[in-house]
Amino acid sequence: MLRTSTPSEEFTELPISIPPLPSFPVEATHWTYLRRNAPKVPTPDDSRSLFIANIPCDSTVEHFRALFASLVGPGKFETITFEHDKKPSWSTHEPAQATRLAAHGKRKREEEEIQHFEIKVRATLPPTWSRKVYPSGSSAVALFADEKSAGLVLKAAKKLKKPKHYPVWGKGVRDIDATPLGSQWLVEHNKLVFPSKDEVQASTDAYFTLFNKMEKEARQLAKRLRNEPDEDGFVTVTRGGRAAPARRDEAEEAKQKMMEREQKKKEEMTNFYRFQMREKRKAEQAEMLQRFEEDKRKVQAMKEKRGKFRPET
């Protein structure tokens, strides 16, 4: 691959030698860039992790384990998190009513947790690629045993001056997750996109088993929550079944809406009383002006009457 300029002066270049492949029988050099990990939201592991830019498209954890072992020796590298890794698809399809179980703090027994996890694994659809490939220019965060180990990797990368000293990509990798890349990888993908009917049926059955199980737990929890007193110590009693929201978040939302309505009603009543008070003050002012005018007329009449009076001398 062609060498590109570093995105920032903070980065340290790490050249990697790519061995010849049957599809491209030419040795090449891939340039990655390392720096201390400094995310926007700091974490306790930032001091012992490195941000890696422009990782090879066929990267795996074992590839980077062998790569860093060739630079600083084994035992320094722990794991790596790739930018484009996503959570399993089943995590976004859980029943909406059951998501509050974890927030409510319900603890399950260890056997139930293991069984729950196994059902989730079975509910996941079969993969369609035997090996994951990342887009060009992707990044990752490598975690090391300690801060010193991360510093040793940066120092070792700075010492790589000659191509014969570059680490070889894939050298020392004992276990690759799936088949190699190339035509064999595409042939395997063509097979995996058409899973057997039994596999799809088993995955579907496991998914709905999990869904029904979580819905049942949600109903049981909702039943308990309806018997719990609120912040004021009151328990709402209804006739003919539940009338109030079962979910705690729905109850909080309903309570918030009720408080907003009460506040709005209070403001409207307050404004109504203010209108009455304004009208009352206007009436009092008009009455005072009327009495003032009457008093003025009385005083004027008294003055006129006094002007006609002639005392005896």
Describe the structure.
This protein has 313 residues and is α+β, with helices and mostly antiparallel strands. It has a domain at 12-88 and 134-178: 2-Layer Sandwich (Alpha-Beta Plaits), CATH 3.30.70. The protein is 46% helix and 11% strand. The chain is built from seven helices and five strands; from the N terminus they run βββαβααβαααα. The protein has helices at residues 61-72, 100-104, 110-123, 147-158, 183-192, 197-226, 248-308, and strands at 12-18, 28-36, 49-53, 77-82, 139-144. The chain has a five-stranded antiparallel β-sheet with strand order 1-2-3-5-4. Helix 3 crosses helix 6 (197-226). The chain is elongated, with a radius of gyration of 39 Å. The protein starts with 11 loop residues before the first strand and ends in a 5-residue tail after the last helix.
Shape estimate: elongated
Text of the CATH class of the domain at 12-88 and 134-178 = Alpha Beta
CATH structural fold name of the domain at 12-88 and 134-178: Alpha-Beta Plaits
**Which percent range describes the beta-strand content?**
5-15%
Distance between the ends = 134 Å
Q: Spans of 5+ residues with little confidence (pLDDT < 50)?
A: 1-8, 88-106, 240-245
Mean pLDDT: 76
CATH architecture level-2 label of the domain at 12-88 and 134-178? 2-Layer Sandwich
Radius of gyration, whole Å: 39 Å
Quick one: CATH superfamily of the domain at 12-88 and 134-178? Answer: RRM (RNA recognition motif) domain
Structural class: alpha+beta
Instruction: Give the H and E element order.
Output: EEEHEHHEHHHH
Largest beta sheet, briefly? Answer: 5 strands, antiparallel
Work out the helix count. Answer: 7
The helix content is: 40-55%
Total beta strand runs: 5
In what order do the strands lie side by side in the largest sheet? 1-2-3-5-4
Region (Disordered): 86-107, 240-269
GO cellular component, one term: CURI complex
Family: Belongs to the RRP7 family.
Biased composition (Basic and acidic residues): 246-269
